[in-house]
Write a structure and sequence with these properties.
The complex is a heterodimer of chains A (399) and B (284).
Chain A lengths: L1 E12 L3 H9 L4 H8 L2 E12 L3 E5 L6 H8 L7 E6 L2 E2 L5 H10 L1 E4 L11 H5 L1 H5 L4 H14 L15 H14 L4 E5 L7 H18 L2 E6 L2 H7 L2 E6 L2 E6 L1 H6 L4 H10 L7 H4 L5 E3 L5 H11 L3 E5 L5 E6 H9 L15 E2 L5 H10 L4 E5 L2 E6 L1 H9 L3 H6 L1
Parallel strand pairs in A: 3-8, 3-9, 6-7, 7-8, 11-12, 14-15
Antiparallel strand pairs in A: 1-2, 1-4, 4-5, 9-10, 12-13, 15-16
Chain B lengths: L1 H6 L5 H15 L1 H24 L2 H15 L5 H15 L3 H31 L1 H16 L6 H8 L3 H25 L3 H9 L4 H36 L6 H10 L3 H29 L2
Helix pairs in contact in B: 3-6, 4-5, 5-13, 6-7, 6-9, 6-11, 6-12, 7-9, 8-9, 9-11, 10-11, 11-12, 11-13, 12-13
Classes of the chains: A alpha/beta (399), B mainly alpha (284).
């Protein structure tokens, strides 16, 4: 069922708006229009529909108008022309009072820099939406506490936002939105300010949430990988226009034009990622000095069941397992020489991850990354797959 | 060329202003008299009340207040104790209380007028464009000039003193309130809007709390400016430490002038630090 319907919506900032719209129709570029009329085109002729329970992602680089577009939906920015329907009601023609009602009951927004009020505690932040609706203190606090509990932050409810990490702050941002129990969530680059690992965690959490809550979510991002991970459908924007709408699969296999194509090529990171990019720090024993008891202790500390065996020059000798080490310790052996197994798969650091994926699937042990016999790191199956599926943040940021 | 310029008759700006003043004084004299009478009564009562408190108790109260408001530090408390005892010792206590009343009233009136004006300015660019030049005018015009209409409206005494001080001290509160609200991060304003806040809810739950420390800085400036008008206002009969300074000036009594001036400085420092630390404590 159709929840949001956007019809030919445009937004022009500045003066000489009719002339600017005319120029857009003539397919003039943004800079030309700015030069001729002094007006900036934020969004031009955007049309799309979002179905109930769907995650619809709008993707584009900065300046593509995606943040403007999402603000047109709750009219934080007034559209210049076009119609926006939510549940069949025309938002763009609504009076102040009805618009406020829609904002209070139907949709909540999550912001890039979290938008938390620094002078309010987490609980007070979370209950803000309920508070301005005039809901009684007990009821709104109960709801807000429930929302914070779901986000795993109930213990912090009396702290202020500045006392929390970015990831935690955005969980509060999301909890604040959900406490309102809206039908629609507007998420404006909600995870873009977080570092990559936290970001991925938040994406997973959002998907988890969505599987139970079934909200209609409009998600803005500049990262195609994020779009592909969480979006049921994706719209790609450039210079204020939507240039392609489709599922991730459709966009990857059938890009509408060269612009989309360059994005899509960028996404297939396995072509450029090598063993070096995905390897993790090895946990090792020095076969020249360490005995089985030391090895066991280190395994306990690092919670692994397998250690790399190296000599004092960090040349790889093989690996030892926990079972063998335990047996050797029982036999009261002083070194681990006897239990080092050397049947280990090794790869050079510049080997492509794509090629490693096949090897690692069949390997019972992690793969060692070795250069000139020296152990550089190890490849673990989970990490390799993750590296292939998540984005390379720096590469995106550098663009 | 000079002849040409001389041919333009002088524009009678001065007479115009005078006729406006005349019109105001003759038509609103009832109103001005009412304010003068009641204002004087009220302020005298406050001064009497302040004077009736035994000085040592008032000094101790201020010292204790200073101690707690600065976060249990001894600096300001010690300074207040010594400074205020010195003022008492010099026989200036009653004058200090008169000055306190003057500063208190002009600050409170400035705040009551200034904050709503500042809010209006922050919400409307038209209002900002109208009010800003008026504030500039108020701040650049020498403080003495305000004494003239003050005398015309209210005669002499403490009420015209407060009137002149308010005009002189109002701008910082207005400006800083405007600035503070305009400086609230856009995303937070959007957050408040996106949840469906009314403008009133947005103002009181988000904007004013976030602008509070800026507004408090403005209020601090307003208090300081109204204190600086104390001497000027004494020229039209406002009582207090300022009058002591003025008298000493007229009689070239360097010693007396210095002592009264020092009393003002001590009072200014105590008030300034108190309002500032109040701000720090309140800021989250």
């Amino acid at each position: 069922m159709e929840k949001i319907k956007v019809e030919h919506v445009s937004k022009v900032f500045g003066k000489h708006i009719p002339q600017a719209l005319e120029l857009v129709k003539q397919q003039k570029s943004k800079t030309d229009i700015l030069k001729e009329t002094g007006a900036t085109v934020g969004v031009y002729d955007a049309s799309f529909t979002v179905n109930e329970g769907e995650i619809f992602v709008i993707m584009g680089l900065s300046g593509s108008g995606k943040s403007t577009l999402i603000r047109l939906l709750n009219r934080l920015i007034e559209p210049t022309s076009g119609n926006i329907y939510i549940d069949g009601e025309n938002i763009s023609k609504m009076g102040k009072e009805s618009l406020r009602k829609v904002r209070r009951n139907k949709m909540s927004m999550v912001f890039q820099n979290f938008g938390l009020f620094p002078h309010r505690t987490l609980l007070q932040n979370t209950e803000y939406g309920l508070e301005i609706r005039g809901i009684s203190k007990e009821e709104r606090q109960a709801k807000a506490e429930q929302a914070l509990d779901n986000a795993g932050l109930l213990a912090y409810k009396d702290q202020y936002p500045s006392q929390l990490s970015g990831g935690m702050q955005q969980r509060v941002g999301l909890a604040r939105a959900l406490a309102n129990d809206p039908e629609i969530l507007l998420m404006d680059e909600a995870f873009s300010a977080l570092d990559p690992l936290i970001r991925k965690e938040m994406q997973d959490e959002l998907l988890d949430l969505q599987s139970t809550l079934k909200k209609t979510i409009l998600f803005i991002t500049h990262d195609l990988n994020e779009a592909l991970r969480i979006g049921d459908r994706i719209a790609i924007m450039k210079d204020g226009s939507i240039i392609q709408i489709g599922t991730g699969e459709e966009i990857l296999t059938n890009p509408a034009n060269d612009y989309v194509k360059t994005f899509v090529e960028d996404v297939d990171r396995s072509k450029v990622l090598t063993a070096e990019n995905a390897m993790v720090r090895p946990v090792s024993v020095n076969v020249d000095v360490d005995g089985p008891t030391v090895a066991l202790k280190r395994m306990r500390e690092e919670t692994v069941s397998l250690l790399m065996a190296v000599d004092k020059n960090r040349h790889l000798k093989g690996y030892i397992t926990a079972d063998d080490a335990r047996a050797a310790a029982k036999r009261q052996e002083q070194t681990v020489h006897s239990i080092v197994q050397s049947d280990m798969l090794t790869v050079p650091p510049d080997m492509l991850l794509q090629d490693i994926l096949g090897l690692i699937h069949n390997s019972p042990t992690p793969i060692a990354v070795v250069k000139d016999e020296r152990l550089l790191g190890v490849l673990i199956r989970g990490v390799v797959i993750e590296a292939l599926s998540t984005s390379d943040e720096e590469a995106i940021a550098n663009e | 060329m000079n002849n040409l310029l001389d041919n333009i008759p002088a524009i009678p700006v001065g007479p115009w202003v005078e006729s406006v003043m005349d019109w105001l004084t003759s038509n609103f004299s009832m109103f001005f008299n009412l304010i003068q009478k009641n204002g004087k009564l009220l302020m005298n009562q406050v001064t009497d009340l302040l004077v009736s408190i035994p000085p040592i108790i008032l000094i101790l109260l201020i010292v204790i207040f200073a101690f707690f408001v600065t976060g249990k530090k001894f600096g300001l408390a010690t300074f207040s104790l010594i400074g205020l005892l010195f003022i008492y010792n010099q026989g200036l206590w009653t004058h200090l209380m008169e000055t306190t009343t003057l500063v208190l009233f002009s600050s409170i009136i400035s705040i009551i007028l200034g904050i709503p004006l500042g809010i209006l300015m922050s919400k409307s660019t038209v209002a900002e464009n109208v009010i800003k030049p008026i504030l500039d005018f108020m701040q650049t015009m020498p403080g003495f000039v305000y004494l003239i209409p003050a005398v015309a409206f209210f005669g002499i005494g403490i009420v015209p003193g407060v009137f002149a001080s308010v005009i002189f001290a109002l701008p910082p509160t207005v400006r800083m309130t405007n600035l503070g609200i305009r400086q609230v991060p856009k995303e937070l304003v959007e957050a408040a809007d996106s949840y469906g806040s009314t403008s009133k809810q947005k103002l009181f739950k988000v904007e004013i709390p976030l602008a509070k420390s800026t507004i408090m800085a403005g209020i601090n400036q307003t208090v300081m400016l109204s204190l600086s008008m104390v001497v000027t206002a004494s020229m039209i009969g406002a009582p207090g430490l300022g009058r002591e300074v003025l008298t000493a000036l007229q009689r070239t009594q360097v010693g007396n002038g210095f002592v009264a001036g020092l009393g003002l400085v001590i009072f200014a420092i105590v008030i300034d630090r108190l309002t500032q630390s109040f701000n720090k404590k309140k800021a989250v």
